[in-house]
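Need the bound structure for flavin-adenine dinucleotide, inputs here:
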Amino acid sequence: MAEILVLVDHLDGTVRKPTLELLTLARRLGEPSAVFLGPGAGAAAETLGRYGAHKVYVVDAPEVEDFLVTPAVDALAQIAESAGPAAILLPSGPDGKETAARVALRLESGLITDAVDITAGEDGRPVTEQSVFAATYQVTAHITQGIPVITVKPNATAPEPAPVTPEVEKWDVAFGPAATTVKVLSRTPRERGDRPELTEADIVVSGGRGVNGAENFAVIERVADVLGAAVGASRAAVDAGWYPHSHQVGQTGTQVSPQLYLAAGISGAIQHRAGMQTAKTIVAVNKDKDAPIFELADYGVVGDLFQVLPQLVEEIERRRS
Amino acid sequence: MKIVVCVKHVPDATADRTFTEDGTNDRGSVDSLLSELDEYAVEQALRIVESGVEAEITYLTVGPDDAKDALRKALAMGGDSAIHVSDQDIEGSDAFGTSLVLAGAIERHGFDLVLCGMASTDGTMSVVPALLAERLGVPAVTHLEELTVEDGTVTGRRESDSATVRVQGALPAVVSVTDRSGDARYPSFKGIMAAKKKPLETLDLADLGIDTERVGRTGARSAVDTAARRPPRTKGEIVAADGTGDAGLAAFLTAKKFV
Ligand SMILES: Cc1cc2nc3c(=O)[nH]c(=O)nc-3n(C[C@H](O)[C@H](O)[C@H](O)COP(=O)(O)OP(=O)(O)OC[C@H]3O[C@@H](n4cnc5c(N)ncnc54)[C@H](O)[C@@H]3O)c2cc1C
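Answer from helper R.:
Posting the output first, comments after.
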């Protein structure tokens, strides 16, 4: 069966959920092989095998952590040249997209970014689906040249296990001069709270300018915690310094596709919509009945978020007890 | 030193954008402007010069005739000159075709630093800076929120989804900046007037020695099969806050099994 390469996204060896989604999609096209860069492959191999990776290529070289993006390009391009896969899948995100673009250029391949779904076409080659123009259009496309290189957005599919015992292959990459040109001087991990990650969460509760202050975000967090949700924010709230940029939802922030998106004190500007319009269910709380966010909402409450949200928490807790 | 800022003329993102019948972005249907995300790159170029680095700033765009408007807008903010690459055969290019043309024009002009925005507001692929660096054979220091250029290097800060990373590369390099790198200035009246007199060179593919087969629709490496407007989300139930516990919202969330 055709080999499909999947670039693994991991944090110190802990495989992140989007990678499991990629492995699940890859099985529609052929037999997935994972490409694992950096230390920690031991524990990861088991997880990758559980989601159907028949093979794990491991590149445990210091270059991968000491330099930006290009070591991954060398690794992936060299493995692809030798393995001759039927497709290469990577997680969408700044690093994944850059890696994908460079790999495609080196392999003289075509590239599709930000796919939200992949299926096998009539000839078995991948057909992608993308949401474009702030998610107002749905586009299907295919690659016409070389090995298809595709980046996939988080939440494109639900990860499904298909356990196998993977063959682990250590791979020595011959790093070219471009691999070591952009040095990582320091890396400060961001503090990870107990809440789910924005891109991976089933529910996202977001606050905007209407939250009106950093300390008021506690109101949003309360709702998030009672629903087991991640916290998001509009750019207006982030620019005001009320919440960290890593939580920004939208065109220049994170694009989420959760089961439920609850927007409070957010007007629904096109750039914000670009990051949340594909949510399954949208709920809005806004004191302006004409706010554009209501056009998208499956359920909307016209009112003051400082009244509506605490009451919602109370009501949910009452229903649960 | 030579700074080249790549800018794109894009359909207004707040307008209703559509596709042409052959599946490319229909640029004729709405007003276009300088991509807002490229304004941040223009701003950083100007700040580098203002910080005392001796440099000449040139804007570069690839696009149809009216793409000149994006160059004039950038020149009105500041900077010295502009290059417009325009050719019938470029129409329909993907990121590979576009980056080939940009790289050709950059090499012809000469460069120490190429500045780009983090993505275009229409294509949103975010891959042109990396492709340019790959083609030009120079470092790509991308997605910077903060940068300094000194002693032949560019150093900056970038936010990955799990960490803050400080990175450094030697010039010549390609750099992209995010919308958090610093607010872009508005052109002054004087700036707008001055822009009209600044040199603007127009080039075509022959000037760059680029084979027409490698760009446009023929050179594109992917093809759109279908483009359909997503069914508009149907507006749901909108209720006034009832002030008595918003049982309606809680009931909705319970019915959808979120509670
Ligand atoms: C290139 C570019 C990229 C951008 N990228 C992004 C992006 O990634 N993400 C993003 O979010 N934006 C982005 N923006 C900005 C976007 O255009 C909007 O400015 C921003 O989304 C507005 O945020 P907001 O809805 O919180 O604020 P506003 O538009 O000011 O809306 C605030 C809302 O809160 C309501 N409100 C106020 N008080 C209360 C209350 N007590 N109770 C209930 N409701 C209340 C108001 O009625 C109003 O509707 C981008 C813009 C540009 C140009």
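Comments: Chain A has a mean pLDDT of 95. The first helix of chain A runs from residue 17 to 26.
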